[in-house]
Design a protein that fits this description.
The complex is a heterodimer of chains A (229) and B (474).
Chain A (H helix, E strand, L loop, with lengths): L2 H16 L2 H14 L13 H14 L3 E5 L5 H12 L3 E4 L3 H4 L7 E4 L8 E5 L2 E3 L4 E5 L14 E7 L3 E2 L2 H15 L10 E5 L4 E2 L7 E2 L6 E7 L5
Parallel strand pairs in A: 1-12, 2-3, 2-4, 4-7, 5-8, 7-12
Antiparallel strand pairs in A: 5-6, 6-9, 10-11
Chain B lengths: L9 H9 L2 H24 L4 H17 L1 H14 L3 E5 L2 H14 L4 E4 L3 H5 L2 H7 L3 E4 L2 H9 L15 H11 L12 H18 L2 E4 L3 E3 L4 E6 L3 H7 L3 E7 L3 E2 L2 H16 L6 E5 L13 E7 L3 H5 L14 H4 L4 H4 L10 H12 L1 H4 L11 H5 L6 H14 L5 H14 L2 H19 L4 E2 L6 H4 L4 E2 L6 H6 L4
Parallel strand pairs in B: 1-10, 2-3, 2-4, 4-7, 5-8, 7-10
Antiparallel strand pairs in B: 5-6, 6-9, 11-12
Helix pairs in contact in B: 2-12, 3-12, 9-10, 16-19
The chains are: A alpha/beta (229), B alpha/beta (474).
Amino acid sequence: MSARKDIFARLKTTLDRVHNPTVRYSGADQRIQDGSPALIPERGRSEGPAKTALFASEAERADADVRRLAHMADVPRVVKRILTEAKITTLKAAPDQELQAMDWMDIDVAFGRGEGSDHIGLSVAYGAVAETGTLVMTSGSNAPTTLNFLPDVHMVVIREQDIAANYEEVWDRLRADAQSDAQSDAPQLPRTVNWITGPSRTADIEQTLLLGAHGPRKLIILLIDAQTS
Amino acid sequence: MSQDPKCHDFQRGAKKALDDERLQMLLGRTLENGFQKKRLQGMSRLPEYEQLRDQARDLKDHVLDHLDMYLARFEAEVTKAGGQVHWARDAAEARDIILDICLQADAKTVSKGKSMIAEEIGLNDHLIANAIVPVETDLGEYIIQLRDEPPSHIIAPAFHISKEQVAETFKDSHTHLDPDRDLSEPTTLLNEARGELREKFLRADVGITGANILVAETGTAMIVTNEGNGDLTQDLPPVHIALTSIEKVVPTLEDATLILRLLARTATGQEQSVYNTFFTGAKRPTDIDGPDEYHVVLLDNGRSELLGSEFRDILRCIRCGACINHCPVYGVTSGHAYGWVYPGPMGSVLTPHFVGIEEAHLLPGASTFCGRCEEVCPVRIPLPQLLRNWRVRAFEKGLLGGAQRLGLGVWAALARRPWAYRLTMNFTIAALGVLARRKGSFKRLLGAGGWTKTRDLPAPQGGTFQSRYRKGER
């Protein structure tokens, strides 16, 4: 018997002994349909400007550097300042349409996936979660996952209107997008969905907290105000 | 290392740990002054924590009742998303499946994210025996791999190693670097490891990670890391293998979210770990990065037997490490004494199942039944009860030593005869009282050497519990 058949037979024998198989099987289908009954904590139910403020303060708590920008068009200017401070002239940016259309002045910008030699990377977040100051990044043709992990400094643009109060709202949005994008009959999540809460860290040496283990040493969030973008 | 358990040697391992002052210092720093405090801080920021624990317990129980159903759905969804699912009945099958995938990919080196399942099946030794070089990329795992040691904790595998020892290990291993370089600071050590491992990430032919949770609805698997090593492991090589076990599946993305609201908070007190990565299938035609090939290896290794046994509740475990962090026995013996992959209370329940109660019968005994493990478990596993179940099995198999059996026999005889019990207790207490005279404690006492070696034994005072209870002291 194949391992698969064998494992399923064992599970079925054990479980059918205790429960009625018909009820059991329809119960699982129904459960996926109905969704999780779990509660969403109070902190995950913020609204309006309080939601944005909560996102920023939770992200800072996780050692992210949050900068608020009035307009999307301000991004190159702020990026330029960060590059100058770091004494770096090159930028690796996600091949996002909006980023590609920007005036990058004298910055030596390349668009593409992350490489081992990247110093500073720039991505656009799919969304964010105010509850814990978490960015949500998705992979795709204009969003390389490698750029989230390889640069020393990772800058991420998040539009205020894309900040959700809780994770559940982001899952709903991803499901809706998967459905509207679906060419085939099987709507799918992007290959990766990354929740990122602060810069990379480790406490593996004598429990001393150190930032920048394998991923970025610094996470800079460029938060674009809603009313003006 | 997982292939030859040393659980029968628990007492020797424990003694060695107790005599190791440096280890005792690191244990105190890591547990009582580290994880325990951080968990309390994390809990204090989430008023709904207790409610979420109940819901997580119920979720896992529901999953266990429908495990075959959710696994079938998970498999179907992974396949739709361009991944391949492999089933392994036991450790040997899982090792062979992974070796096959590596050989197909003509792999020379494999980068590895931290995976307790890989430890459980002894994967590294198997790869090395077949001329494939596995590189552990979690900093703690990397350090112990260089030192050829097993992990001492499921989430802090190298906590038992001092920074001086790490420096020595790096000087011995990174021989192409200046031998006189200064490695006295943790930051320098981290930067050196980061540089060494960066090259290895970029060159690896296959990446192997574990998975913390599987989502049936979408065929998604997810991993939790703070370093980002798991992500570099799965994004850079052309082949990604996720090695995991069958009890990790949940119905929906929101169910995974429930577990994630508890996992990091309970483990390290963080709101979330830095990187929670959900991955579904292989690289899509329009993606600009990611692995071309994606495999999930689902391991049973006796879990389907646990499901129908009195140990079923252990399958709720989400591997947060809280029971380990709060166990007074682990708190002095550390992880190596347990002699196999999983230490502490959850380990003492799992290990006898994996390596046999004959080998591991001392582990269920390595508990005071103080109940802290159950108290802190985010999915409310009744760990003391499960340990007790193993003690019963060990007793039935006649695995206890003669002295223990005799002691239990005497106790049982007394407990069944209240008059004899009362008489014996009254006599013993009176005798000890006389012997201790006015000092009130013993520096030495025949038969209690284990206790008096490190502290005085207080003499009983004021009669037996029963006599005082009857007199109205309550």
